[in-house]
Specification:
Layout (H helix, E strand, L loop, with lengths): L3 H15 L1 H7 L6 E3 L13 H19 L3 E3 L1 E3 L5 H10 L5 H7 L1 H25 L5 E6 L4 H16 L3 E11 L4 E3 L4 E17 L5 E7 L10 E4 L4 E7 L2 E6 H11 L4 E8 L8 E2 L8 H8 L5 E4 L12 E4 L5 H9 L30 H10 L3 E14 L7 E10 L5 H8 L3 E3 L1 H12 L4 E2 L1 E2 L9 E3 L5 E3 L3 H6 L18 E3 L6 E4 L3 E2 L1 H6 L1 H4 L8 H6 L5 E4 L6 H13 L6 E5 L2 E2 L16 H8 L1 H8 L8 E2 L2 H28 L14 H22 L6 H19 L3 H4 L1 H19 L4 H15 L21 H24 L10 E5 L2 H9 L1 H8 L4 E4 L6 E6 L1 H8 L3 H7 L2 H10 L1 E4 L2 E4 L3 E6 L4 E6 L2 E6 L4 H22 L8 E7 L7 H8 L1 E5 L7 E7 L2 E9 L1
Parallel strand pairs: 1-2, 3-4, 8-11, 9-14, 18-27, 26-27, 28-29, 30-31, 38-39
Antiparallel strand pairs: 5-6, 5-17, 7-8, 7-13, 7-16, 9-15, 10-11, 10-12, 17-19, 20-25, 21-22, 21-24, 23-24, 30-37, 32-35, 33-34, 36-37, 38-41, 40-41
Helix pairs in contact: 1-26, 4-6, 12-13, 19-20, 20-21, 21-23, 21-25, 21-26, 22-23, 22-25, 22-27, 23-25, 25-26, 27-28, 27-29, 30-31, 33-34
Length: about 1000
């Protein structure tokens, strides 16, 4: 079995000792460029298995491009800013809140974050290298460096110059745990079951008249400032037990029948537009002091507003609670009607002291308390459970709330059509990725870019009390603006000390204390990793990126920010080709998580089966689809790689024994059909794999290469076991040629085993190049491709498998010869294939003859009517048909495919055919028909079978003694069963110089029973 641990350790050392990666890069310097842009993983810990999968896919394409002669830009890179790092550092020092960080010391905290990021980046460099991922780690881009920060500031400056940067008060998703605003792309939606409530609001100046509202967020009732109705819907005023409730007519019956047992009748009916401006009294009007103040300042507070876009009959009452400070849709309607986004939640999601008896309650968490308080004032009508998608923080997975906060935004909604147009020129694999990205862009909102945290790229905006502001793009620009206290490190808290004189009033401008959304760092990577704008040469030669690759969730993340950033900066797309993979789940399809205990470390897989197996197994998953991790599948791929290893060992062993230099391949040799087939299969594979790589269809490649070397092992090697001695040069040079080119292709996917096999071939046959990874990509010789021959072999191998399956049914080992196999087929291509290659079927299945027939041989057929189908097709006429359907007609249907009874056509579906074979025949199906084997064993066949069994056992004895093919032996066979007729055959097969059918007293002996016959086998080494 292939020893992967020993191999991978030695190959890693070989690469490092001989600088193989650097040599692979240097050999293509100055040639046609290929710009790969690394999507930065977070430096928040060790490599996890999704990272290994993701980066292996990238490495596969980079290795291919290097072998194709491209000058590949492969700079590694990481995300370092933001909450993932901050949370880890906070946990290390037991810091829970922003206040804790301030007590700890912001400067000390930032230094801890910097050190943590550097340390983890170096660890991840080593982890990725261990998986065989070749990138430029020495020059990896780190967003914590000043140069990178200035590349990000370049974007902010550009956006400002293009009037696409603005500050606005907006209702934002907010994570109370992380205590920061969240952009749309940072929200993950989960289906949850929660309380929804029906509440009545008393109409102002009306006795016992109420509007009924519905909401799924009870805590937001404290910020209710309006009710929305659809102007086009029909509404009714309903008398319910003396109170008059107003509800959408289309929802009245459903609501009243489910939530009240009181009698009701309709008093009045009207359109929603008639309710415009109706005033109501909030149930907590005397508990929340802000309500009166807001009403005086904004007259439309606590009135009915019209909204056809956000009110429908899908659920609820047709009257929707509106809190402009608690949701983007509510904000939009409020803004249109001059109703303010009132929301004074604290950063941790708690209500402040100014909210009276609600002070200290926590948004979302305390929903049941808010429901109770509505009940206490008589406003609650009903509580019901509802399942819906709710936004959660992608970092800490807490449910988000809403806050009305001032943030800075990129203005992008009005340029989404430009981005959609640019996306038309991008190649997406799979194609569904393009559709998903189009959908995201089509619904694009202005991106908030600011975060209220400490660890991140500082927002490069300085503001003055007079209202003036300036956006700065570099330390150099600060100095040109006569800034004071320009620091060496551009992070907080040092950057906060910088003061810039205001050109408008002369006072000092102070930096906005926020940091940038970490996604902005990643979005700028397309030029920041090229050191732009500090350097122009790399940007001008390489930009935009030729290739990016990430998981499908990056449609709303990195892919989105790359497109937005490059459009704002340069009015173009920053990438040309995208490969998108799915997510990693366990075998049941559940997402891997520590809480479920189903997380797999990449090192678990590497320690068990090797890094090559990880890559070979995981990278064949269909693009865009999830991989259900299976240890059994991983084990199978390891076994298949072991087959490849054994193939190269077989080649070297026979080349040694027969003294053949197998690399001396001559296309003009006299090949038999099996060589022509393997050479055709090889060149077809090279052609197909090249085409797949050129179109970035990485996932389809591993199977093609695997099929090639498995076919080499399971078909070609089986055929040439005897031929290798008779035609050694043809066999071994063919074997070398196929194996050599296969290893070149496989080097992109499984670089360790490919390298080791190549080095062994290099040592044995004097190959020139130092490493397989310094070779050029193979080119297909199309003159050797014979698709018909490949199809014929495919058919014949299908027949072989069917014969072997029939043998298994009969319990007869393939070592025991059989008289014949009958192939039953009506398919012309199958008939021709078997006829031309019948000798290969005989050889591989150990049968003495292969006979082709169109129909079943020796079977007794019982044909009966299929009454169910006849009844279904002919209904009332079926009794008549069944009465006339005799044996002769049914036989005709079976033989000719159809027959008629009067005007009614009957086909094979109208009969049932049961076939009974004689006892000595066993059948098995294949794709184009059926095979039968004759299991009757004659005396001659029996003797041959025993001879094969004895031969195998003597060969096992040789192996147990550690003998090579060059070692000469004498053999003795003692048994009551006479094998003298087969002595010469056995002697040749086991490599003996003498064979005796008497006991010679040889020390190495073994007594075995074979099918009831006893044999004493012994050997002596000469």
């Amino acid at each position: 079995m292939y020893e992967f641990k020993k191999t991978e350790e030695s190959v890693l050392k070989f690469w490092e000792d001989n600088n193989i990666y650097k040599k692979a890069v240097e050999k293509n310097k100055g040639k046609k460029k290929f710009y790969f842009l690394q999507g930065p993983p977070y430096t928040s810990g060790r490599l996890h298995i999704a990272h290994a999968w993701n980066n292996s896919l990238k490495d596969i394409m980079l290795r291919y491009k290097r072998m194709k002669g491209f000058d590949v830009w492969d700079r590694a890179g990481y995300d370092m800013h933001g909450l993932p790092t901050a949370k880890k550092v906070m946990a290390e020092h037991n810091l829970k809140t922003k206040e804790d960080i301030q007590k700890f010391g912001v400067e000390k905290f930032i230094n801890e974050c910097i050190n943590f990021s550097k340390e983890k980046a170096r660890i991840m460099d080593k982890d990725l290298w261990r998986v065989g991922i070749w990138m430029d780690y020495e020059n990896a881009y780190w967003p914590i460096r000043n140069e990178y920060i200035e590349s990000v500031w370049f974007l902010i400056k550009k956006a400002d110059e293009k009037k696409r940067l603005y500050e606005g008060l907006r209702t934002m998703s907010w994570c109370p745990s992380c205590q920061t605003a969240m952009a749309k792309h940072e929200c993950q939606y989960k289906e949850v079951e929660e309380d929804s409530i029906f509440v009545k609001f008393k109409l102002k100046g009306k006795d016992d008249e109420y509007i009924l509202v519905w909401t799924t967020t009870p805590w937001t009732m404290a910020y209710n400032l309006a009710v929305m109705v659809n102007p086009e819907l029909d509404y009714v005023k309903v008398d319910v037990g003396g109170e008059k409730w107003i509800i959408a007519k289309g929802l009245m019956a459903i609501f009243l029948n489910n939530y009240t047992d009181k009698k009701y009748h309709i008093v009045e009916e009207f359109k929603g537009e008639e309710m415009d401006g109706w005033e109501y009294v909030h149930p907590w009007h005397d508990k929340i002091p802000y309500f009166d103040e807001l009403k005086q300042k904004y007259p439309k507070v606590h009135t009915v507003l019209l909204s056809s876009e956000y009110v429908n009959l899908g659920a609820g009452t047709g009257l929707v609670h509106c809190a402009p400070g608690c949701g983007p849709e509510d904000y939009e309607v409020g803004h249109r009607n001059n109703v303010p986004p009132f929301n004074n939640l604290k950063e941790d999601g708690t209500f402040p002291e100014e909210m009276g008896e609600f002070a200290g309650l926590k948004a979302k968490t305390d929903d049941k308390v808010f429901i109770q308080k509505l009940d206490e004032v008589g406003a609650l009508i009903a509580v019901t459970k509802v399942e819906h998608d709710y936004a959660h923080c992608e970092r800490c997975h807490s449910p988000v709330v809403f806050r009305a906060t001032k943030q800075w935004f990129f203005k992008t909604e009005d340029i989404k059509d430009k981005m959609l147009d640019m996306n038309k020129d991008v190649l997406w694999v799979p194609e569904s990725g393009k559709n998903a990205f189009d959908s995201w862009l089509d619904n694009l909102r202005d991106n908030s870019i600011t975060k209220q945290r400490f660890w991140g790229t500082p927002v490069p905006i300085w503001k003055c009390e007079c209202g003036n502001y300036v956006v700065v793009s570099s330390r150099k620009e600060m100095q040109e603006l006569n800034a004071k206290n320009v620091p060496e490190n551009l992070h907080k808290p040092w950057i906060d000390e910088v003061k810039i004189p205001c050109k408008k009033c002369g006072k000092d401008m102070t930096r906005l204390p926020d940091v940038l959304d970490v996604w902005i760092d990643a979005g700028c990577a397309s030029w920041a990793c090229l050191e732009y704008p500090h350097r122009k040469d790399l940007f001008e030669r390489l930009y935009p990126a030729d290739f990016i690759l990430e998981a499908r969730e990056q449609v709303r993340g990195w892919f989105n920010l790359l497109m937005v950033a490059s459009t704002l900066a340069f009015d173009n797309a920053s990438f040309k080709n995208v490969y998108m993979h799915g997510m990693l789940t366990d075998i049941e399809g559940q997402k891997m998580s520590k809480s479920l205990g189903n997380v797999i470390s990449p090192y678990e897989l590497i320690d068990k089966y090797g890094a090559d197996t990880l890559r070979f197994y995981m990278c064949r998953t269909n693009a865009g689809e999830d991989i259900k991790f299976s240890w059994e599948e991983a084990k199978l791929k390891y076994k298949n790689l072991s087959i490849l290893w054994n193939l190269h060992s077989y080649l070297i062993e026979y080349a040694n024994n027969l003294n053949i230099n197998a690399k001396e391949f001559d296309v003009e040799q006299e090949f038999d059909v099996e060589e022509l087939y393997m050479l055709s299969k090889l060149n077809s594979t090279i052609k197909d794999v090249t085409n797949l790589y050129e179109n970035y269809k990485i996932d389809d490649v591993p199977k093609l290469i695997e099929d090639l070397f498995l076919e080499l092992s399971r078909t070609y090697v089986q055929i040439i076991r005897d031929k290798v001695v008779l035609k050694p040069k043809v066999v071994l040079t063919t074997l070398f040629k196929v194996l050599y080119e296969t290893v070149k292709m496989l080097a992109t996917i499984s670089p360790f085993i490919s390298e080791k096999i190549y080095l062994n071939l290099k040592d044995k046959f004097g190959l020139e190049k130092e490493s397989v990874h310094l070779l050029e990509w193979p080119e297909a010789d199309e003159s050797l491709i014979d698709k018909k021959l490949e199809k014929d072999f495919e058919i014949v191998q299908n027949v072989v498998q069917a014969v072997l399956a029939a043998r298994e049914k009969a319990g007869i080992s393939v070592r025991w010869p059989l008289k014949e196999a009958v192939v039953l087929t009506k398919d012309d291509a199958a008939w021709e294939a078997v006829e031309s290659l019948k000798n290969l079927v005989m050889l591989q299945t150990n049968v003495k003859d292969v006979v082709l027939m169109p129909t079943m041989k020796g079977a007794t057929l019982q044909i009966t009517p299929n009454k169910g189908q006849i009844g279904k097709d002919f209904k009332q006429d079926s009794p008549k048909i069944l009465n006339e359907l005799n044996d002769e007609i049914m036989k005709k249907i079976n033989e000719e495919g159809k027959a008629y009874i009067g005007d009614f056509e009957l086909t094979e579906k109208h009969i049932n055919v049961t076939e009974t074979l004689p006892e000595n025949l066993v059948a098995s199906d294949f794709r184009y028909g059926n095979v039968q084997i004759n299991t009757e064993i004659t005396k001659e066949l029996e003797q041959e079978g025993f001879a094969r069994e004895v031969t195998r056992r003597i060969q096992e004895m040789r192996k147990q003694q550690g003998l090579t093919r060059d070692d000469k032996i004498e053999v003795s066979i003692v048994s009551n069963y006479d094998l003298s007729n087969w002595g010469k055959e056995i002697k040749t097969k086991v490599g003996a110089v003498a064979l005796y059918f008497e006991d010679k007293g040889f020390e190495v002996s073994n007594e075995v029973e074979i099918k009831g016959e006893n044999f004493k086998l012994a050997l002596r080494t000469l």
